[in-house]
C-alpha cells in the first residue's frame, strides 16, 4: 500500500495567506505546503482540498481511479467543488467500517475533538492511521495492534502520539509522519529537530510513501541535557521533548518552599503547562530513579539538585569544604553521572548555564558557579544530545 501526500500543511496551507510572520516568510520551496490530503493506492482520497487534481498531477498521479472520497474535517460538506469524475465525498460514522472493491478496509476512529480519524488496512494487510488537525483518538483500548504508519498533527497534538504509544498503537517500527503543518514552528531545521525528538518526520508535498517500508528516522535521544539561562525557555524545551510520550515522571528537585509566593507561582505555571498524564515526584534522590526501570524522566533541574548536595556536605563553610566537603561533593556528582551512564530510561534533564554571566561577589557564589559548571560538563558527557536554549531558541551542542 502506498500513500501520496497531495498536501501536508494546515487547512489554510503554509505560508498562510496574508500572514506576515517569520515562519510563513521562510516557507519557500519544499517548505511550502498545501492543505493535507492523502491519495491511497490511487483508489482512496482522504480529504478533498483545493487543487487536489493538480497536486496529484504534479506528483505523477491521477485521481481518475479514485473510488471513494472521505472527509476527516468536522464540516459535513466538501471543502471545495468536487472535480469532475470524482465520487461525492462522504464520512464513515465512528466505529463503522467501510470495505472497498479494491480490497481496502476503512474504519472510522472516534476522536476527542470534532472530526473523524481513519484506520486504513490495505489488501496485503498493511495498516495506516490518519488523524485530522487538532484530533486525537478517544477511548483507546490496551493492548492494541501497532500501525505501520501514522499521519497526524504531531506539532499541534503531540499528546495524540502519547495516547497511541501508551496502548501500543505506535511502536518502534511505526513510521510517524507529521501532517497539518502550520506556522507554529519555523520550517526547515527547527521543524526537523522537534519532530525527531518525537520520533516523527516530515516529507514534502507530492511525496509517495510505501506503508510498511523501513524509513531511517532519527532515533529519539535516550539522554538529553537542556541548558539555558534564567527565563530562556529551557524548561519549555525539555517538556516539549517528552510531550509525545506517555506516563512521563516529572522530577522536581526544588520542593515547595513554603511561604515563597513567587516560587509557588512558578511551580503552578509549570504544573499547568505539563500534560495531565504526567506524574510528579519532588525529590533530589535521583540515583535510585536512574537505576530503576520505568517511564521517561524529566529532571528539572540539576542546579537545584546541586544546591541540595552542597548543603548536605557543608560546602558553604570554608573549613568544612576543605575538611572533606569538596571530596564528598565530587563523590556525589560522580555517583550521579555513573547512574546516568548506566540508566536504561529515557532522561531529559534541565540545568542553568551560569558561567557566562557576571562573576559572583561572594566566595560561596563563585564556588556554586564553578561546581555547577563542572556538574553540567560531567552530565553532558553522558548524554547523546545537549542543547543550549537562548531567547527561546534551542541550539544543538551535541547530537
TrEMBL record:
EC identifiers of the protein: 2.7.1.156, 2.7.7.62
Transit peptide keyword on record: no
CDD domains, per the entry: CobU
Gene Ontology terms: biological process: cobalamin biosynthetic process
Annotated Gene3D superfamilies: P-loop containing nucleotide triphosphate hydrolases (3.40.50.300), Ribonuclease Z/Hydroxyacylglutathione hydrolase-like (3.60.15.10)
GO molecular-function terms, A-Z: adenosylcobinamide kinase activity; ATP binding; cobinamide phosphate guanylyltransferase activity; GTP binding
Sorted UniProt keywords: ATP-binding, Cobalamin biosynthesis, GTP-binding, Kinase, Nucleotide-binding, Transferase
Secretion signal span: none
Metabolic or biological pathway, per its Swiss-Prot or TrEMBL entry: Cofactor biosynthesis; adenosylcobalamin biosynthesis; adenosylcobalamin from cob(II)yrinate a,c-diamide: step 5/7; Cofactor biosynthesis; adenosylcobalamin biosynthesis; adenosylcobalamin from cob(II)yrinate a,c-diamide: step 6/7
Catalysed conversion reaction: adenosylcob(III)inamide + ATP = adenosylcob(III)inamide phosphate + ADP + H(+); adenosylcob(III)inamide phosphate + GTP + H(+) = adenosylcob(III)inamide-GDP + diphosphate; adenosylcob(III)inamide + GTP = adenosylcob(III)inamide phosphate + GDP + H(+)
Entry annotated with the keyword Coiled coil: no
Role this protein plays: Catalyzes ATP-dependent phosphorylation of adenosylcobinamide and addition of GMP to adenosylcobinamide phosphate.
PANTHER family per the UniProt record, alphabetical: BIFUNCTIONAL ADENOSYLCOBALAMIN BIOSYNTHESIS PROTEIN COBU, PTHR34848
Similarity remark: Belongs to the CobU/CobP family.
Protein name: Adenosylcobinamide kinase
Organism (species): Streptomyces cyaneogriseus subsp. noncyanogenus
Organism lineage string: Bacteria, Bacillati, Actinomycetota, Actinomycetes, Kitasatosporales
Amino acid at each position: 500500500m502506498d500513500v501520496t501526500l497531495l498536501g501536508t500543511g494546515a487547512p489554510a496551507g503554509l505560508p498562510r495567506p496574508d500572514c506576515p510572520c517569520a515562519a510563513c516568510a521562510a516557507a519557500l520551496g519544499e517548505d511550502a505546503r498545501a492543505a493535507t490530503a492523502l491519495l491511497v493506492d490511487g483508489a482512496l482520497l482522504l480529504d478533498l482540498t483545493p487543487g487536489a487534481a493538480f497536486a496529484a498531477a504534479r506528483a505523477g498521479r491521477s485521481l481518475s481511479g479514485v473510488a471513494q472520497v472521505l472527509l476527516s474535517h468536522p464540516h459535513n460538506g466538501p471543502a471545495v467543488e468536487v472535480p469532475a469524475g470524482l465520487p461525492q465525498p462522504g464520512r464513515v460514522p465512528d466505529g463503522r467500517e467501510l470495505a472497498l472493491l479494491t480490497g481496502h478496509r476503512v474504519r472510522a476512529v472516534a476522536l476527542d475533538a470534532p472530526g473523524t480519524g481513519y484506520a486504513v488496512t490495505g489488501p496485503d494487510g498493511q495498516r495506516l492511521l490518519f488523524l485530522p488537525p487538532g484530533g486525537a483518538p478517544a477511548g483507546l483500548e490496551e493492548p492494541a495492534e501497532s500501525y505501520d504508519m501514522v499521519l497526524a498533527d504531531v506539532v499541534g497534538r503531540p499528546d495524540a502520539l502519547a495516547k497511541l504509544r501508551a496502548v501500543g498503537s505506535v511502536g518502534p517500527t511505526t513510521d510517524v509522519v507529521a501532517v497539518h503543518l502550520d506556522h507554529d514552528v519555523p520550517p526547515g531545521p527547527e521543524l526537523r529537530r522537534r519532530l525527531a525528538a518525537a520520533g516523527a518526520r516530515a516529507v514534502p508535498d507530492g511525496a509517495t510513501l510505501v506503508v510498511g517500508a523501513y524509513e531511517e528516522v532519527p532515533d529519539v535521544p535516550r539522554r538529553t541535557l537542556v541548558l539555558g539561562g534564567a527565563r530562556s525557555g529551557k524548561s519549555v524545551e525539555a517538556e516539549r521533548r517528552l510531550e509525545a510520550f506517555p506516563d512521563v515522571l516529572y522530577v522536581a528537585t526544588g520542593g515547595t518552599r513554603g511561604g515563597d509566593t513567587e516560587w509557588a507561582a512558578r511551580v503552578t505555571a509549570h504544573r499547568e503547562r505539563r500534560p495531565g498524564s504526567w506524574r510528579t515526584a519532588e525529590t533530589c534522590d535521583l540515583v535510585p530513579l536512574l537505576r530503576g526501570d520505568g517511564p521517561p524522566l524529566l529532571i528539572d533541574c540539576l542546579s537545584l539538585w546541586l544546591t541540595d548536595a552542597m548543603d548536605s556536605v557543608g560546602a558553604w563553610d570554608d573549613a568544612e569544604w576543605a575538611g572533606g566537603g569538596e571530596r564528598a561533593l565530587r563523590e556525589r556528582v560522580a555517583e550521579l553521572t555513573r547512574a546516568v551512564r548506566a540508566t536504561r530510561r529515557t532522561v531529559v534533564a534541565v540545568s542553568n548555564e551560569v558561567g557566562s554571566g557576571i562573576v559572583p561577589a561572594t566566595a560561596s557564589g563563585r564556588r556554586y558557579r564553578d561546581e555547577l559548571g563542572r556538574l553540567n560538563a560531567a552530565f553532558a558527557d553522558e548524554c547523546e544530545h545537549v542543547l543550549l536554549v537562548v531567547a527561546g531558541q534551542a541550539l544543538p551542542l551535541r547530537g
